[in-house]
Design a protein that fits this description.
This protein has 130 residues and is mainly alpha-helical. It has helices at 7-14, 23-43, 46-52, 74-85, 93-103, 116-124, and strands at 59-60, 106-107. Keywords: Metal-binding, Zinc.
Length: 130
C-alpha cells in the first residue's frame, strides 16, 4: 500500500531511472494516498467524495468550439480548495478539472465529437452511484 511506504521504499523509487520521479513527487504521492485514506474513512470512498460535488450525476456540457472548453470550473475550484484543506498537494483547479473530465464527472466533449452522444447517453441513464 502506497500510504504505508517508508523511507527506504521512497528512496528506492525516486532513484529508479526507469520511473524517473523526483523524490519530492514520490513523497507527494505517498502523502496524498494518506489523505485519500482519511477521505475514505469520512465519506466511504474517494468516489463518494468526488461525486458529491456534482450531486452524483455527471455535468453535461454542450460546447461547440474547443476555445469554449474551460481549463477549470467553479466545482473544480471548490474541490481543489477542499482537497488542499485536507492536506492534499498538487491538486489545483486545472488538475482537478482534468480529473473530473477523465472520471466522467463532467462531459466536455464537443457536440460534434463522435463520443459526445455516447457519453451523454451514459450520463443521462438512470443509475445509482456506488
Amino acid at each position: 500500500m502506497v500510504a504505508k511506504m517508508g523511507e527506504e521504499e521512497i528512496t528506492e523509487i525516486s532513484s529508479n531511472k526507469a520511473i524517473m520521479l523526483a523524490e519530492s513527487r514520490v513523497r507527494c504521492i505517498v502523502d496524498n494516498s494518506k489523505c485519500i485514506l482519511k477521505v475514505v474513512r469520512e465519506f466511504g470512498s474517494l468516489s463518494n467524495y468526488m461525486w458529491s460535488y456534482v450531486n452524483h450525476k455527471p455535468v453535461i456540457n454542450r460546447y461547440r468550439y474547443p476555445r469554449n472548453v474551460p481549463l477549470r470550473s467553479p466545482k473544480a475550484e471548490a474541490i481543489s480548495k477542499d482537497l488542499l484543506k485536507r492536506g492534499f498537494r498538487f491538486v489545483g483547479p486545472v488538475i482537478v478539472h482534468s480529473f473530473m473530465q477523465a472520471a466522467g464527472l463532467t462531459i466536455d466533449h464537443l457536440v460534434d465529437c463522435y463520443r459526445h452522444s455516447d457519453c451523454v447517453g451514459l450520463a443521462e441513464r438512470p443509475w445509482r452511484h456506488i
